[in-house]
Structure formats: structure tokens, C-alpha cells
Design goal:
Elements: E1 4-8, E2 13-18, H1 30-45, E3 51-56, E4 61-63, H2 77-95, E5 101-105, E6 108-110, H3 112-118, E7 122-126, E8 132-134, H4 148-156, H5 158-165, E9 170-172, H6 173-178, E10 184-186, H7 191-205, H8 215-222, H9 225-243, H10 248-263, H11 265-280, H12 283-298, E11 315-319, H13 323-336, E12 339-343, H14 347-366, H15 372-379, E13 382-385, E14 396-399, H16 405-416, E15 424-427, H17 434-437, E16 447-452, E17 461-466, H18 472-484, E18 488-491, H19 500-516, H20 521-531, H21 537-544, H22 546-560, H23 568-575, E19 588-591, E20 594-598, H24 601-606, H25 616-636, H26 643-654, H27 663-670, H28 672-686, H29 694-701
Parallel strand pairs: 2-3, 3-5, 4-6, 5-7, 6-8, 7-10, 11-12, 11-14, 12-13, 14-15, 15-16, 17-18
Antiparallel strand pairs: 1-2, 8-9, 16-17, 19-20
Helix pairs in contact: 1-2, 2-11, 3-4, 4-5, 4-10, 9-10, 10-11, 13-14, 14-15, 19-22, 19-25, 20-25, 22-23, 25-27, 25-28, 27-28, 28-29
Length: 709
């Protein structure tokens, strides 16, 4: 089925519309490039055509990149390299086209979409917020494979190109114009007309000369061989600091950019194809591609039978204006753009919560992601008070009060008297089973959990927790609203700690034991950052709140026994009111809210002396293997619906190293028998809390795996 149509305009401009049938966005396969290439050959031979405009037929997407399904077919590095060379040949044909090609960009222009655009004569973009341009390939463990590492730095300079390539991030159209990535910025309504006029102008006047960007710094760094060496060296140091060397793709991209700028386009393209081929078959890329497919599948999975009706959420009520409540409110106005009513017991707390919610929107304004007009509109979406005003018209009400069962039950009882009969009540509890909160509810079918992670505006995961009595409609509504909030959503069983905090509990428990044994705080964190976590467990405890961890620890111990009992360090820190970042002191010192160094007074408080020598490999095993064990145990209990959901939850909820694929993928990679053997050795050395769970022992005994692929 054809993916394109051609409309001949009076000025001798042919408008080519790309529209992959049956797909929500345009993704390009080799077959699609062949069809477009054939169409361009015909237009090149047509004397009536003086110029071409490329546009998308999709409402909010230009080209979202290459078809990722092609990646799983690569059997070797040579296969992947050949695919990159094939893409180069196609894009080179576009660049060599004998007539001007203007690209009209509206919506996502990513990966191959941007690489194709870079080969065109002129780029016109819409000023719509959905217009984003970027090269996200490093997020799949590869480098751009269709010339992006070569053409982008030649267009905008190495520094600006590295900002895009090395983080795999996208730029809004206004920023793209500022750095020279696009040539014109116009409202969507006139995008194609402006592109046609630009094509006509280029046909008459020839290729326009672009002015160099970057000012004095650009002259010293981007356009100077010695300056570029500084740029390469700085970029490499920043990548290593951020990734710990676990991700080879950004480092390879730096090398490819260097070759392209110093040795010419042909050499750069050859280096890019080689790097693409080598990276595409690495374990890191394989895991990142699996994560991509898993998150894509979750976007279509409501966790209930297909066809279940979900209510559209336009008004949200939030009870509790503390850090979590304000974060939920701020995310709702900025991402979902729904009206929010914030409620608390005292007006000063309401005011503080409103300010925190508005500050999330203000952050977008400061980073120039929204205009002043958009900011004022978002601010108008949120209001607050101490009474129930506004709550009768809310579609969903989220409770984010103190982690106390009696308090949460009282909030539910009060709200059920005023909210609409069809409104959903969701608790943001982190550990308390939802069924216990809903035990006395008038309408338990409308009660579920929506467990957000802190800080809400930045953490990507949401756990939706139905009880046995929650209706499928309520679950579907919560899941789809979670996606509207920009979250990756997993549906988990109503067990203490749910999924993320369940598998995190033994990790925190063991970190506490290590501290009490005298293992230096900074060493514990350093070991786990080196393992691939974004922060170590002690830093994470400070971030979560040590009092919150203590409360959760009580719930987990009651449910699962002494193996999840918090170490003595946690209680002593709470007694000393050293609660973490929010209190200005915890295991670490803080200056104006920013973590500095471990506080040496903690050792005196705990009555311990830091050890001079520590077996770091043993520290790593003692932290990692209990987490793996608990993940296997929770899967065996049906806490998550599939290993896929469990691994995505761990990666997006606690920052489990993506290149390791998640705890269940890690068990498969190590082999269940090897994991069991290590746990048994740890149990002999440190106690029964390390004993392998029955589900893991059974898996090992039959030589099984969590995944069949």
C-alpha cells in the first residue's frame, strides 16, 4: 500500500505527503525509503517540477524515526552496518537531488525523520508544542545510523549537536530555530503554504546562505580544530561522569562526530555505519530495545479486558498539599492540563501547596518550554481551599495525606459524602494495602491506589493498584489518566509495598545493616552507582524521607516478618529528627536543599566507627541479591501481571540499571541456579534474610527462565 501522494502546485512545486497507512505515526522502513526514492526520481525527471516540499499526512507527527522492528532482525554487526549504509545511500540521494527540497515539519521529527530533514535544502517547522526535533538513538544503545552524527554537527556545530545526540533528547521548534536546526518557524495553519513559497523562492534564487551561529564561542570552539579538541574531551568526560561507562553508544557517537568533522563526510559516514553495526548487537542495545517495546506495549494495556469503558478525566481533586500532593497537582496542570482543586486542613498549607504546584509550571516557563501566556493559563487551572468546594464535580480524587491507615480511612469517609457517585477515589499510599483503606467504603468498586513516586513531576512511573472489589472501569480510567499525566503505568496486585517498594525494602534493609556494621556511607552509595543505579541506597533514603522509610518498614515487617525489619539505623535517625533532604539533614549534609557530604556526626549518633577496609564486591552482592530475590518472590505471588511489568516498574520506579534489563532479566542473564547459589552463600555468612525464595529455587531446579526470548 502506497505511503505517499503527490500534489502539483501552480508554482511548479510538488508537495509530497508521507502517510504510512494504518499507523498513528510515520515510521520508515527500507521499503518506504525505496518508494520515496522512486517518487523523487520521477519528480527529478519531470520538467514541470521546479522544487519539492515534503510533509506528513499525520495530524501531529512528521516522521518518528526508523521502524524499530527492523532492529530485532539484525543477526550480526555486519547486518546492522549494511542497514546503516543502505540508509546513508537513501539520504545521500535526497541530499544530491537536483532541485530544492523543502521539508515542512509539524509534530515529532525524530531519528531518521530528522536525518532526512538534514539532507533537505530548507527546513520550515511549525511553532506548535508537539513539534520536537531530535536524535533519540542512544536511548536504544546505538548511534544515529542515517548520517545524523555527520550532518548535524556540520550544520549547528559540535557543541549543540552533542547536546542532542549524546542525551538522545529532542528540542522544541523555537530552540531548533535558535540553534540553526530549522530555517523558519511558522504557525501550523500556514506551514505548507510557507514551505511552498520557500521552495518557489529557492527554485528562482538558488540555495540561501546561512549565517554562522554561536558567536565568539562558536568561532573558538566549533570552527577551530584546537577548540573542537576541547569540545570532544569535555563531552567525553561528561558522558563518563553521567553513565559510568556502562553505555557505549554516546562515547561512540563522539568518535563518529570527530571523524566526520576532521576527516570529511565520507569518512564520517563510514565510521557511523561501523559504529551502528557494532552497537546494534551489543547486550546493552538489546536490553534497551526490549525496554522500548515493553513501554510501547504498556501504552496500549489498560490492565483490564479489552473494550472496558474509561471515564474522561477533566477535573482532579487532591487531598493533602504536601510534597506529594503538590507534585501531583503541578503535574496534572502542566502535563494533563486538567483543572485541579487542592485541599488541606489549614490555609497556610494550602497556600504552600499551591505555590509548589505553580512552581512546576514556572520551571517550564524558565526553561522556555512554554510561553508566558501558556504559563498564566496553566496557573488558572489550579485552586485550593480547606473545604470540599469543587470536589463534587471532580472525576478523580487522589488522597496524598500522611501514611497512616486511620487518617486515610477518615479522608475516604469524608469524601464519599460529597464526591459524585461515579467519581474515583485513589490513594497515593506507598505501602498500605488498598483493601484495608477501602474496608469501610460505601463504594469500594470506585476505590483503588495510584502510587506516584517522588518527585512526581520527574519520576516516570505510576503504579495503579485495584482491590478485588475495584471495577474494571475504575482501573481503566486510572490507567489512562496516568498516561495523560505522562506516566508509564503498571497495574499491580494489592499487596503490602505493591511492587516497587516491595522489592526496594530488602535493598534499604541491607543498606541499613551495612551502615550499622561500619561500612562508610559514601562507599555504599558509590558501589551501587558503579553498579548502574542513578543514586545509591543511602542517598535514596534521604531523598524518600527516612521517616517515610521507617513507616513503610513497619508495614513491611508486619506483612513479611523480620527479614524485612528495618535496621536499627533507621529508627535512630528518625528519633534524632534527621529525616533526609526535606529536613535539611539525614545521612548527608545539605546546603540550600542540595546534598553535599556524608555527615560524620551520623556515626556518633549510631554508635559506630567507619571501617578502614571493606570488601566492595561483597557490599555489592549484599545489596543486589536481596532485591533480585524479592523480585522473584513477588512475581511468584502474582504481584505483577508479567515479568515485563516487573522489570519496567523497577527501571522507571527505582532507577534499576536499564542496561541490565530489570531484576528479572538480570536473573535470567546470571542464571537462576547461580543466583540461588550466591544467596545461599550470603545466608550462611549473614543470616536467613538472604535465603532464596521458593519461587526462585523452583525456577533454578527446573532450569527455567522468566522470559522465553
Amino acid at each position: 500500500m502506497a505511503i505517499l501522494s503527490v500534489d502539483h502546485r501552480d508554482q511548479g512545486v510538488a508537495v509530497v505527503t508521507l502517510d504510512v497507512p494504518g499507523e498513528p505515526v510515520n515510521t520508515f522502513s527500507h521499503a518506504h525509503s525505496v518508494e520515496l526514492g522512486a517518487a523523487l526520481d520521477a519528480l527529478a525527471a519531470d520538467p514541470a517540477v521546479r522544487a519539492v516540499v515534503l510533509r506528513s499526512g499525520k495530524p501531529d507527527s512528521f516522521i518518528a524515526g526508523a521502524d524499530i522492528n527492523q532492529f530485532v532482525a539484525f543477526g550480526s554487526a555486519a547486518d546492522a552496518e549494511a542497514s546503516s549504509r543502505q540508509a546513508h545511500a537513501f539520504v545521500d540521494r535526497v541530499e544530491a537531488f537536483p532541485k530544492p527540497i523543502v521539508v515542512a515539519i509539524h509534530g515529532a521529527c525524530l531519528g531518521l525523520g530528522l536525518e532526512l530533514s538534514l539532507a533537505c535544502t530548507w527546513r520550515v517547522a511549525s511553532d506548535h508544542p508537539k513539534t520536537q526535533l531530535g536524535l533519540p538513538e542512544v536511548q536504544l544503545g546505538i548511534v544515529p545510523g542515517a548520517g545524523g552524527c555527520v550532518r548535524l554537527p556540520r550544520l549547528i556545530g559540535a557543541r549543540a549537536a552533542f547536546d542532542i545526540i549524546l542525551a538522545g533528547k529532542s528540542e522544541r521548534a523555537a530552540k531548533a530555530l535558535a540553534i540553526g536546526l530549522v530555517d523558519e518557524l511558522v504557525p501550523p495553519a500556514i506551514l505548507v503554504d510557507v514551505a511552498v513559497r520557500a521552495a518557489d523562492r529557492l527554485a528562482r534564487e538558488g540555495r540561501a546562505r546561512r549565517t554562522s551561529r554561536g558567536g565568539i564561542q562558536g568561532a573558538l570552539l566549533d570552527r577551530n580544530p584546537l577548540g573542537r579538541r576541547v569540545v570532544y574531551r569535555t563531552a567525553r568526560a561528561q558522558v563518563l561522569k553521567k553513565t559510568g561507562g556502562h553505555y557505549p553508544a554516546p562515547l561512540a557517537a563522539i568518535d563518529v562526530v570527530r571523524v566526520g568533522l576532521e576527516q570529511g563526510q565520507a569518512a564520517g559516514l563510514a565510521a557511523e555505519a561501523r559504529a551502528f553495526g557494532e552497537l546494534a548487537v551489543t547486550p546493552v542495545s538489546r536490553e534497551l530495545v526490549r525496554i522500548f517495546f515493553a513501554t510501547t506495549a504498556l501504552k496500549k494495556d489498560d490492565g483490564v479486558p479489552a473494550g472496558t469503558r474509561a471515564r474522561d478525566v477533566t477535573r482532579l481533586g487532591v487531598v493533602g498539599s504536601g510534597f506529594m500532593g503538590a507534585g501531583i497537582a503541578g503535574t496534572a496542570i502542566t502535563t494533563a492540563k486538567v483543572e485541579v482543586r487542592l485541599r488541606d486542613a489549614e490555609l497556610p498549607r494550602v497556600g504552600k501547596g499551591l505555590k509548589a504546584a505553580i512552581d512546576i509550571a514556572r520551571g517550564q516557563l524558565t526553561r522556555r518550554r512554554i510561553s508566558r501566556f501558556e504559563f498564566e493559563r496553566l496557573v488558572g487551572l489550579v485552586s485550593g481551599g480547606i473545604d470540599a468546594a469543587g470536589f463534587p464535580t471532580c472525576d478523580v480524587v487522589i488522597e496524598a495525606v500522611f501514611e497512616d491507615l486511620a487518617v486515610k480511612r477518615q479522608v475516604l469517609a469524608d469524601l464519599e459524602r460529597v464526591i459524585a457517585p461515579e467519581a474515583i477515589f485513589a490513594s497515593n499510599t506507598s505501602t498500605i494495602p488498598i483493601a484495608r483503606i477501602a474496608a469501610e467504603a460505601r463504594h469500594p468498586e470506585r476505590v483503588l491506589g495510584m502510587h506516584f513516586f517522588s518527585p512526581v513531576d520527574r519520576m516516570p512511573l505510576l503504579e495503579v493498584i485495584p482491590t478485588e472489589r475495584t471495577s474494571p472501569e475504575a482501573v481503566a480510567t486510572a490507567v489512562r489518566f496516568g498516561r495523560k499525566l505522562g506516566k508509564t503505568v503498571i497495574v499491580v496486585a494489592d499487596r503490602p509495598g505493591f511492587w516497587v517498594n516491595r522489592i526496594l525494602s530488602p535493598y534499604f534493609v541491607e543498606a541499613g545493616h551495612l551502615v550499622m556494621e561500619g561500612v562508610p556511607i559514601e562507599l555504599i552509595d558509590r558501589v551501587m552507582v558503579r553498579h548502574g543505579f542513578p543514586v545509591g541506597p543511602i542517598s535514596l533514603l534521604d531523598e524518600v524521607g527516612i521517616d517515610v522509610a521507617a513507616k513503610g518498614g513497619v508495614v513491611m515487617r508486619e506483612a513479611f516478618g523480620d527479614r524485612l525489619a528495618p535496621a536499627a539505623a533507621i529508627g535512630r535517625m528518625v528519633d534524632a529528627k534527621r529525616l533526609g533532604r526535606k529536613a535539611g539533614s539525614g545521612f548527608y549534609l545539605y546546603h540550600e536543599g542540595h546534598k553535599t557530604d556524608p555527615d560524620p556526626k551520623v556515626y556518633d549518633l549510631l554508635g559506630i566507627k567507619p571501617l578502614a577496609t571493606v570488601d566492595e564486591a561483597e557490599v555489592e552482592r549484599r545489596l543486589v541479591y536481596p532485591l533480585l530475590n524479592e523480585a522473584a518472590r513477588a512475581v511468584g505471588e502474582g504481584v505483577v501481571r508479567s515479568p515485563r511489568d516487573g522489570d519496567i516498574g523497577a527501571i522507571f520506579g527505582i532507577g534499576y540499571p536499564p542496561f541490565r534489563g530489570g531484576p528479572l532479566r538480570t536473573i535470567d542473564a546470571l542464571g537462576a541456579p547461580a543466583v540461588v547459589a550466591t544467596l545461599e552463600a550470603l545466608a550462611r555468612a549473614h543470616g536467613e534474610r538472604f535465603a532464596p525464595c521458593e519461587a526462585l529455587a523452583t525456577l533454578a531446579a527446573r532450569g527455567g527462565r522468566f522470559y522465553s526470548d
